[in-house]
Structure formats: C-alpha cells, structure tokens
TrEMBL record:
Substrate binds at R74, Q98, R103. It catalyses: alpha-D-glucose 6-phosphate = beta-D-glucose 6-phosphate. GO terms for biological process: carbohydrate metabolic process. Belongs to the glucose-6-phosphate 1-epimerase family. GO terms for molecular function: carbohydrate binding; glucose-6-phosphate 1-epimerase activity. Keywords: Isomerase. This is Glucose-6-phosphate 1-epimerase. Its EC number is 5.1.3.15. The keyword Isomerase applies. The active site is at H183, E293. GO terms for cellular component: cytoplasm.
Amino acid sequence: MERKHKPASIPVSPSMAQPVVDLSDNVLTARLPSGDSVTVYLYGATVTSWKTSNGQEQLFLSKAAALDGSKPIRGGIPLVFPVFGPPPKSHATGQLPQHGFARNSHWEFLGKSTSESLGRKTDDSVKLDFGLSSSMLDEALQNKWPYDFGLVYSVTLGRGKLECQMHVQNKGDEPFEFQVLFHTYLAVKDIHKTAVKGLQSSPYVDKVRSAQTFTEEASSLSFSGETDRVYTPPTAEGNTLVPLLVTEDGAESFVVTRDALPDVTVWNGWEDKIKAMGDFEPKDGWKSYLCIEPGTVSSWTKLEAGDAWEGGCAFESKL
Ligand code: BG6
C-alpha cells in the first residue's frame, strides 16, 4: 500500500574528494583532487607556483628570488598597490617604494571556501582569502601613506584556471587614490616564439621609448627586444574587456580575462636588464617568462570615505 506522507528518499552522493589546504611557515599550499595546485607566500600574498593537473608549472619564479621577506619576490604574481612603478613625487603615494607596499607586506590568511560552499557543482575549486589593512603596516609606512584601508585578495584555484580578485575598502574618513596591478610572470618555453593576441588598435605607453604613446598595429604581438608597455585596450560592445590570448609556437597557451581592470602591462626585461638584476636566475631566464599584468594604472582610482572597489583577472592554461 502507498503511504500518503512517504518521506522523500535521501539522495546518496558519492563522497566528494575535497581540496587540501595547508599553511605552514607562512606558506600556504592548496591542491585540488584533480591535481591542480597553488602556493602562496603570506609575504606579499605572492603566488609563487601554479601547477595544472599535468604537473606543469604555469608561472616563472626566479631561482634567486628572496623568499625570506627581505625584498619583494621575483616571479609568480607580486601584487602592486597603491602605486604602479616609481611613485610621482607630487602624489600622495610619493614617499612609497616602486610598485607600493602590498608586495612586501605580511598579509594574513583569512580562510578558504571550497567549490561546495561556493555553490559550484560542476567544477571543483578552492578560494583562498588574504587580508592586509593599514594597522598591519609598520609605522614608517603608515606615515608615508596615512590612509585607513582594507584589502581582501582572493585567489581561486580551479581546474586549469587561476583567478585573482582584489577588494579595496576605504575605512577612513577621507578619500584616497590608488592603482592596483597583478604583476603576473607567466612561464613560457621561449619568448622568441611567444606572442600576444588581442592588443591590436590598443593605445600604449612605451616605457622603452621615453614613455611616448603609440597604437598597436600587430594582430599578434611578438618579442625581439626589451618590452615594457602599458596597454589600455579599447573595450568591446557593452563596455566589456577583451580577453588576451598568449600563444606559443602558434598554439594557444593562456587566456587572460579581466574584470574592472582597463590596463595591461606587457614586460620582458630582455638579456641586458635581466643580467643586471641580482635576484634573477638563471641569467637566461628572460627567455622563459612573459609578464602580462592586468591592472588599473594609467590613471588613479579615487575611493571616497566608506566606499569599496573590486577588480580582478583570470588566467586559463590551455596547454
Ligand atoms: C614592470 C614595469 O611592471 O615591472 C617595469 O613595467 C619594471 O618597468 C618591472 O622594470 C619590474 O619591476 P621591479 O620593481 O619588480 O624590478
């Protein structure tokens, strides 16, 4: 006989393997059941390694990078905030070091969220949150940039994908201006065979040619010398930011997407400049990296008291 109020059967779900997250000695590692992994140093909240499930390293990290907190980490994804490049002397950031203080500050780990808690059913992923606020800076830095701010940096590791999101909050009672950039050193097999698509018709400031502005003509930008350019690519219909495509030997290797980050710095120091960098090894390592740095750096973003801003980017590995 059919029961009138028969209880619904409890679905039996296969026990899902969970991401493994470990924090020891101020270094955080996360690994997905698929084998994708990421390593983040709390110093600078710098991602130093991102491997896809085939074990392939996707980021370049100098073998001579200082990993002891004595200077910014050379390679991976150093964070640039609140100023990109040498700070203009007449600006509120004028007393800060090149690229600001985010990359050489000690961040705190705020916690993880897994794909289940993020409501993603199809793809396994883990989101790692890191925080930095004005009270965590040493007194000298607080005096050099005396604003009450809070940053939450989220790194989300997915299958074949790494997302970086920055949340900036003005917790004080006066506005401040900032720039932010994800200084990503992508690992490439040979810079001579590497190209970037998606920059055609984009204006760019060329730091190698006296910071003059040019318009990109190449549909596929290749490299044959020192390159240090800040592109501001035109947006597509609906104001959407166009993805960039990195190719190696003609094959797609990375897709780079952006959210609220209008600029992209493209940097390779090439032979002589890299040779002169004490923390860059091996010396021919310039052949093995390309910095694609999504950011908002061609102008200042003004944040009113109590307001917040958010922007981010994602790197998808295609190889
Ligand atoms: C790039 C800049 O983003 O960073 C370059 O456009 C600079 O001009 C490079 O040389 C590396 O900077 P740093 O401070 O890490 O040596």
